[in-house]
Amino acid sequence: MRRFAGLLGTVLLLSCNNATYGGGGGGGGCTPTATKVCMVGKSFSPTNLTISTGTAVSWDNGSTLTHTVTSSSSSTEAFNSGNVAPAGTYSHTFAVAGTFHYFCQYHGADGNPPTGMAGTITVQ
């Protein structure tokens, strides 16, 4: 019985840990805002964000996977987060107006626009 109780406790603990990062709408560990994009599973939330020139956008990894935030080759402003580990954050300030596509190098593909795990920042 003790062995079963210990196993049940481990399963519950792991379930709670996954709930911190999982779910829709940004997940329990990350809530999107006007300047924050959440990485949840293999997607960005929201996928499209509109900001003012000079605004910093942060990407918070609320996933259990490692991701990147990489500007597409079609973007006129280059940025690359490198690896963003689970619970990690990356920030980039957009200095000029325009539409900037980005993707995750592990779960998306570059293109015009990128596909898979990808998003767009519109700077006005």
Question: Would you spell out the secondary-structure blueprint of this structure?
Answer:
Blueprint: H1 2-21, E1 36-40, E2 43-45, E3 48-51, E4 55-61, E5 70-71, E6 89-94, E7 98-109, E8 115-123
Parallel strand pairs: 1-4, 3-8
Antiparallel strand pairs: 1-2, 4-6, 5-7, 7-8
Summary, kept brief:
By secondary structure, the chain is an alpha/beta fold. It contains one helix and eight strands; from the N terminus they run αββββββββ. The strands form two sheets. Strands 2-1-4-6 form a four-stranded mixed β-sheet, with no helix packed on it.
Name of the CATH class: Mainly Beta
Strand portion, in percent?
Answer: 35-45%
Task: Tell me which CATH architecture applies here.
Answer: Sandwich
How much helical structure, as a percent, in the residues? Answer: 10-25%
Written description of the protein model:
- This protein is an alpha/beta fold and 124 residues long.
- It has 1 helix and 8 strands, in the order αββββββββ.
- The chain has a 4-stranded mixed sheet with strand order 2-1-4-6, with no helix packed on it. A 4-stranded mixed sheet has the order 3-8-7-5, with no helix packed on it.
